[in-house]
Amino acid sequence: MPVTPVALTHAEDLADFVAASPSSYHAAEEVAQRLESVGFARLDEGDAWPTQAGGRFVVVRDGAVIAWVVPKDAAPTTPSQIFGAHTDSPGFKLKPQPTTGSRGWLQAGVEVYGGPLLNSWLDRELRLAGRLALADGRVVLADTGPLLRLPQLAVHLDRGVNNNGLALDKQNETQPVWGLGDPSAEDLLGELAASAGVNAADIRGFDAVVADSARGAIFGKDNAFFASGRLDDLASVHAGVMALAGLSSAPRGIAVLAAFDHEELGSESRSGAAGPFLEDILARIYAGLGADATEQRRALTASWHLSSDVGHSVHPNYAQKHDPVVQPLLGSGPILKINANQRYATDAIGAAAWAGWCESAGIASQEFVSNNAVPCGSTIGPITATRLGIRTVDVGIPILSMHSARELAGVADLHALAQVAEAFFAA
Ligand code: ZN
């Protein structure tokens, strides 16, 4: 697909979105702020909610966010069109008592979060970002900007590395440096506190992750490529936000964007796709439309969940890792993900629906299926389908370097996904 000027603008905006979203908490807040700026009302789960018909709303729960647009003439059985994605990305999370170090170096104690490509995190300027729970009950976001680095051992001290590969010890060789000094006289949490304008002594709890600090970049012949951290799955979250914010005509169904946390860990949390967040919000939307239990079931039976997460483009150096026939290519359109063992929720009915949404958006799509000897990952689709019984299609964009600190996408695909999402909401 050609890279259009509007696709370049979309990718530049995605670079802003990713830069503003070093942690899932930041991502959820960025989604809410962007939607509030175009007229969405932020609701609190602890409050009574206004009448739903004709409203545009957003709710943040920890590192997850759900936003929705209700048509003015919505009835108790009006179906929902749910675009799903996830806010978290693999990497590292700060441990308790994180200020460590030795030999004159200050280091950060971190745990591995999800399944990052460990080597890709070496020799990058990294940020520390997340949320701080304070003694006065407030919860604030914190982001240090570039502060840490995982320096690779020099080749002179590791002569076999280019022949034997590099295997990092997950404990001893993943603790980043963040300064010089005596760890007993320093406090890494003080850096986080200062970035949020609060006192370190007031921190009662923290959820902080390490994130690549480099901005996303467009490059390659004809500007085909977009490289950035956290494309998995902020590229989908961003596409959903753009589609929901830009809905030009009133949707026929209830248009819902659901971005969950903790997908990289299996989604089992109060803000993950296996938790009750989406179910809770849908119950309140339908209650706000006067639906009884049967009417809500009727609405959900007619609803769709378009579950969007990144997938694998064929890699020119490793094409044998793909199915010999089905080989989606970065830049050639979004992908429909198919798996016989229901690692993806797509079925015949979903494939047909996806083809229709792509057709109305004027977008060509591709298919992904694994090589039988190289099992694929999974995503939120089968989890929400199992939990809610809503028809689900797993889709996404083809990328390279999935779970690298800096992944590679196609500029054309990023915008195309947002266009299909908009067609899906309007369907
Ligand atoms: Zn993902």
Automatic annotation (TrEMBL):
The protein, known as: M18 family aminopeptidase
Keyword Nucleus: no
Organism, as annotated: Microbacterium murale
Cited InterPro entries: Peptidase_M18, Peptidase_M18_dom2
Requisite cofactors: Zn(2+)
Source taxonomy: Bacteria, Bacillati, Actinomycetota, Actinomycetes, Micrococcales
Entry's family note: Belongs to the peptidase M18 family.
Enzyme class at the top of the EC tree: hydrolase
Domain of life: Bacteria
Enzyme Commission number, as recorded: 3.4.11.-
